């Protein structure tokens, strides 16, 4: 099991890689992000998330965000080099969308774990669950609030449990907007239809019910105990 | 807001009229509510009729489950608004606006979508003719250019949404717009042709290969419907 600290190390080591691109005389170097390996097999989250979903989600969807992020960043480097401000601005949406997709999915894979593993038991997050009980009254009340929030998302988006200066909160983000404000993302759930459709069809409530079986509470505890700097320093620097 | 939405859409009015006859029990619940009760419109073709371009399973789920959810959500939002209104609680009524927009838009968009599709063996596919063809050539250069621009717009949607061929009410010219989630086309534009770019519209058949879906759907576009909307707009 790769924990979150390892993920950050992984991102730091794996990406960005310095690649010389374009005219070597300009010594234009840019970051190339890579698709992180899953810390478990595609079928490891069965029966809650099917292997087919996991494989497409990781090897196609996440890979596309990485590829499109690299393309957008490369175009951005060219636009900066040529002082083309209009193109730089035009590229911002693609960078945010695909960069967000890369961050969100990277965080997501790490905050899931096979249902039979120790990590998938809420006992693996003693400090976090204590804070959850303090905030929502009970663990079940929190799960209910989180599930309701997930099901209220209109269109594509994510639900996150985050920690900020005042404590724990549930937030949603649209499309691939990343949680890169002041918050620490504890765990996220992908509510895009591609995350569940092949298995659950329009029954997204069942997906939300089952996702609780595969939340990685060990990762969640580590993120909860860490600082935002711990978690985002490497990611932000990498971006 | 709801009444404006309902008034501007002939197809939706048809669905509403049908509901009055089909659901007498619901009609008794509240007089003011009966007038605004939306129901799921029937498709004018079978679920399997758009195969192989859109699978029967997709069509069935899309119509029977997804569209139905928007209809249910719309009625629920309207009911909440009517209740709040009757109590003079306009803050509460206003708080329902996002749900009304989402479910009302979902009902409207899907109703327009089903009507601008047709089996390839009947009215589906091919190219527009007559004044619509002329207008597309004038405003896009050619039908092929229009198609490419529409596909680029569809592929560029970040998240869930729709792409529409629209007519500008002021200038009368054609244009392309995209809308996020279920935001309906309104204001200065009349929707002529809509394509659903939500993942539920293609995922069971095309998975992540959405570009293949955007290519295939041109085989089942009902240009008669689009032309008729254009001429009435
Ligand atoms: Fe995803
Ligand atoms: Fe749809």
Structure description:
The complex is a heterodimer of chains A (239) and B (233). Chain A is 51% helix and 13% strand. With 239 residues, chain A is an alpha+beta fold. Chain A has 2 domains: 4-37 and 49-110, Helix Hairpins, CATH 1.10.287.990; 118-238, minor pseudopilin epsh fold. Chain A has a 3-stranded antiparallel sheet with strand order 4-3-5, sandwiched between helices. Chain A has a two-stranded antiparallel ribbon with strand order 1-2. The two termini of chain A are 25 Å apart. Chain B has 233 residues and is mainly α. Chain B has helices spanning 2-7, 10-22, 24-29, 31-35, 56-86, 90-95, 97-115, 130-140, 143-155, 203-206, 210-216, 223-232; strands at 161-168, 174-180, 189-196. Chain B has a 3-stranded antiparallel sheet. In chain B, helix 5 (56-86) packs antiparallel against helix 7. The longest helix of chain B has 31 residues, at 56-86. Residues 1-34 of chain B have low confidence and may be disordered. The A-B interface holds A 56, 60-61, 64, 93, 97, 154-157, 174-176, 192-194, 197-198, 201-202 and B 61, 65-66, 69, 98, 102, 158-161, 180-182, 198-200, 203-204, 207-208. Bound molecules: fe (ii) ion (2 copies). One fe (ii) ion binds next to helix 5 of chain B.
Secondary-structure map:
The complex is a heterodimer of chains A (239) and B (233).
Chain A: H1 4-14, E1 17-20, E2 29-32, H2 51-81, H3 85-90, H4 92-110, H5 126-136, H6 139-151, E3 157-164, E4 167-174, E5 184-190, H7 197-200, H8 204-211, H9 217-225, H10 228-238
Antiparallel strand pairs in A: 1-2, 3-4, 3-5
Helix pairs in contact in A: 1-10, 2-4, 5-6
Chain B: H1 2-7, H2 10-22, H3 24-29, H4 31-35, H5 56-86, H6 90-95, H7 97-115, H8 130-140, H9 143-155, E1 161-168, E2 174-180, E3 189-196, H10 203-206, H11 210-216, H12 223-232
One fe (ii) ion is lined by residues 62, 66, 110, 196, 198, 200-201 of chain B.
